[in-house]
Design brief:
By secondary structure, this protein is an alpha/beta fold. The protein folds into 4 domains: about 1-115 and about 250-320, 3-Layer(bba) Sandwich (FAD/NAD(P)-binding domain), CATH 3.50.50.60; about 120-245, FAD/NAD(P)-binding domain; about 340-450, 3-Layer(bba) Sandwich (FAD/NAD(P)-binding domain); about 455-555, Oxidized Rhodanese, domain 1. The chain is built from 16 helices and 30 strands. A hairpin with a 5-residue loop joins strand 24 (about 375-385) and strand 25 (about 390-400). Helix 1 packs parallel to helix 7 (about 305-320). The chain is globular. The model has no long low-confidence stretch (mean pLDDT about 95). Belongs to the class-III pyridine nucleotide-disulfide oxidoreductase family.
C-alpha cells in the first residue's frame, strides 16, 4: 500500500511516524511546499522575543533526519496542485525546478493545516516588508531580521487571540510600544467577557494599548516611512513601525475544489472517528479537519498542535490496521500573558446558555498553595449543569498553578464528572503544592452546594435584578473598614459575628444576598440565615472583589 501525505508539520509527520511504527511494508510519501518540517508554530513568538535563543530550536527534526529515521520519502518545496480522487492521483509542482509531475496513492491524507486570515485592508500588501503573519519558520526569521535591522519603536497587532497576545508580550518586553486592535468587544474570544477583562487589565498594566470594537479600513505609508492605519471610517488613526496580523486562521482547503470532499459547519473538512472524509481513500487531520465537542457532540474547530498530533496518530494507526478512534475535544487552551496564566476548557457560560443548559456559575478565588509558602491567587470560573450536576466548563486566571488545575478539570469533564465528583478527587497535597482543600476540590464542593442547597448569584445577575427593581436585602458581612472602602450598591453592613443577633431586623420573606470579599464568609452568612428560616438566600459568587471588577468591565 502507498500512503501519500500532503503536509509535514504536526499532523502530517505524526501520520507518517505512526504508520511506519505499525508496518515496514507500506510505502509512505510526504509532500510539503515549505522548506521545513515538524516545526513549532507556537514557539515563534518566544523566538522573536529572545526566550528561544535560536531558530533551529523550533525545527528539531529536518527532512533528512525524519526520512532516515522512519524510512519515509519527504519532498519539501513540492506543492500539490490538484487532487484526482477518481484516479487516486495528485499533480505536484516542484518549486525548485518548476517541473510538474503526478503521483498515485492507495490512501491520501490531507494535512495542509490552516492559513492565516488576511483582513481586507491588508490584501494588497502581501509583499510589504513591515507587515507580517506569524505562521511558519520563514515568518519567524523575517520578523526577527526586521526587528534587528530597523529597531522599530512601535508595533500594531491586529487580533487578540493566542498569537496576538503572545506577540504583544514579547514585543512589549523587547522595548517596542504595542497597540492591539480587536474587531470584537473583548480579547480572547474563547473566554467569557468578564474573564477576558482580567487578562486585558494585565496587558494594559504592562503598557499594551488595547482598542476593542475596531476594524482597520485602510493602510498607507506616511512621510516618516511608518504605517498609518485608518480605523472605523476615519474616526481614528494609528501610526506604527510594523504590523503583526494575528486575526486568526482558516482551514487551508483551497486544494479541495472539485473533489467533492465535504466541509463541516466550520468550513474545515468533515471527518469520522477514523479521520476519513466522505471520499473513499482520503483522510484529513490537524488544522484542516473539524473535530467535535465532547460535551455537545456538535462540530468544534479549535486548531492546536496537541489536537493535530493526536489526529495524525489516529490516522496513521487506522490506515495500517489499527483500532484507534477520535473521541472529540473540549477545546482546552492555555496562554501566558506577562505574569498571568490564562486557561480554559469546555463550555463558557455564554456557550452553555446558548446550548440550552440551566447552569450554575461559580467564581472561586483561592491561592494555588499555602499562603505561608508563597501561594498566589487563582480565579476559577466554573460552570455546571443544574439538572445533572455535570461540570461543563472552566476558565482560570492566575500567576501560578493554573496549568495543573485546568488539566485536572479537563480530565474530569472528559469523563463526565459532576461537581460532587470534583470534591471527592484524591488530589496530591503538601503546603508547597496545594492548599488542604485544593481549589479544584473547593470548586466542586461550592458548585455542588449551589446546585442543591446554597444558590449563588453572579454580579451580572445581581445588577440585572436591581435594575429591574426586584426587592432584595443585601448583606455585607465584612469589616466596617472594608465596607466603607467599597461595597455592593444598596448593601447594608452586618458583620458575620453580629449576624445571628441582627437577623431579627431582616425580613426572611424577601430575597436576600450575602457577600464578603471573595465568597467564603458570604457562604457562612448564607447558612446562618437559611437555618433561621430565610426563604431565599443567595451568596454573591466571588464576593465584592468579583463584583467591583464587573463594575469596571461594564464601565469600560
Amino acid at each position: 500500500m502507498k500512503i501519500i501525505i500532503i503536509g509535514s508539520v504536526a499532523a502530517g509527520t505524526s501520520v507518517a511516524a505512526k504508520a511506519r511504527r505499525n508496518t515496514e511494508e507500506d510505502e509512505i510519501v510526504v509532500y510539503d511546499q515549505d522548506t521545513d518540517i515538524s516545526y513549532s508554530v507556537c514557539g515563534i513568538p518566544y523566538y522573536i522575543g529572545g526566550e528561544v535563543p535560536t531558530l533551529d530550536t523550533l525545527t528539531p527534526r529536518n527532512a533528512a533526519w525524519f526520512q532516515k529515521r522512519y524510512n519515509v520519502a519527504i519532498h519539501t518545496e513540492h506543492r500539490v496542485m490538484k487532487i484526482h480522487p477518481d484516479q487516486q492521483k495528485i499533480d505536484i509542482l516542484n518549486l525548485k525546478t518548476g517541473e510538474t509531475v503526478e503521483d498515485f496513492y492507495d490512501e491520501l491524507v490531507l494535512a495542509m493545516g490552516a492559513k492565516p486570515v488576511t483582513p481586507v485592508a491588508f490584501e494588497s500588501f502581501t509583499d510589504a516588508k513591515d507587515i507580517f503573519h506569524v505562521r511558519n519558520i520563514q515568518d519567524a526569521s523575517t520578523i526577527h531580521h526586521y526587528i534587528k535591522e530597523t529597531q522599530p519603536k512601535t508595533a500594531l497587532i491586529v487580533g487578540a487571540g493566542f498569537i496576538g497576545l503572545e506577540m504583544a508580550e514579547q514585543l512589549q518586553q523587547s522595548g517596542i510600544d504595542v497597540t492591539i486592535i480587536q474587531r470584537g468587544n473583548q480579547i480572547m474570544k474563547h473566554l467569557d467577557r468578564d474573564m477576558a477583562f482580567r487578562v486585558q487589565q494585565v496587558l494594559e498594566k504592562q503598557g499594551v494599548k488595547i482598542t476593542l470594537n475596531t476594524t482597520i479600513e485602510k493602510i498607507k505609508r506616511t512621510d516618516k516611512e511608518k504605517r498609518l492605519a485608518t480605523i472605523d471610517n476615519h474616526a481614528c488613526e494609528r501610526e506604527s513601525d510594523m504590523i503583526i496580523l494575528a486575526a486568526g486562521v482558516i482551514p487551508n482547503t483551497s486544494l479541495l475544489h472539485g473533489t467533492n470532499i465535504t466541509l463541516g459547519s466550520s468550513r474545515a473538512v468533515s471527518i469520522d472517528e477514523k479521520m476519513r472524509t466522505n471520499i473513499p481513500h482520503i483522510s484529513a487531520v490537524g488544522d484542516i479537519a473539524e473535530s467535535y465537542s465532547l460535551i455537545t457532540g456538535k462540530p468544534l474547530y479549535r486548531p492546536l498542535g496537541s489536537t493535530a498530533n493526536k489526529m495524525g496518530r489516529i490516522a496513521g494507526d487506522t490506515l495500517t490496521g489499527g483500532l484507534l478512534q477520535h473521541r472529540g475535544i473540549l477545546g482546552t487552551g492555555i496562554v501566558r500573558v506577562f505574569d498571568m496564566v490564562v486557561a480554559y476548557t469546555g463550555l463558557t457560560e455564554q456557550e452553555a446558555r446558548d446550548e440550552g443548559f440551566e447552569i450554575e456559575v461559580l467564581y472561586n478565588i483561592k491561592p494555588d498553595k499555602a499562603d505561608y509558602l508563597g501561594g498566589k491567587e487563582l480565579t476559577i470560573k466554573a460552570i455546571a449543569d443544574r439538572k445533572t450536576g455535570r461540570v461543563l466548563g472552566a476558565q482560570i486566571t492566575g500567576t501560578q498553578g493554573v496549568d495543573k488545575r485546568i488539566d485536572v478539570l479537563a480530565t474530569a469533564i472528559t469523563f463526565k464528572a459532576t461537581a460532587a465528583d470534583l470534591f471527592h478527587l484524591d488530589l496530591a497535597y503538601a503546603p508547597p503544592f496545594a492548599t488542604t482543600k485544593d481549589p479544584v476540590l473547593y470548586t466542586g464542593m461550592a458548585l455542588d452546594n449551589a446546585i442543591h442547597d446554597n444558590p449563588l448569584i453572579t454580579p451580572e445577575m445581581l445588577i440585572r435584578k436591581q435594575n429591574e427593581g426586584e426587592k432584595m436585602q443585601i448583606i455585607d458581612t465584612r469589616s466596617k473598614k472594608q465596607f466603607e472602602a467599597s461595597s455592593v450598591k444598596n448593601a447594608i453592613h452586618i458583620p458575620l459575628s453580629e449576624l445571628r443577633e441582627q437577623a431579627t431586623l431582616l425580613d426572611p420573606t424577601v430575597i436576600t444576598v450575602t457577600y464578603c470579599n471573595k465568597g467564603v464568609t458570604g457562604n457562612a452568612a448564607q447558612n446562618i440565615l437559611k437555618n433561621k428560616g430565610f426563604q431565599t438566600v443567595y451568596n454573591l459568587s466571588g464576593g465584592n472583589k468579583n463584583y467591583q471588577l464587573y463594575l469596571q468591565l461594564m464601565g469600560d
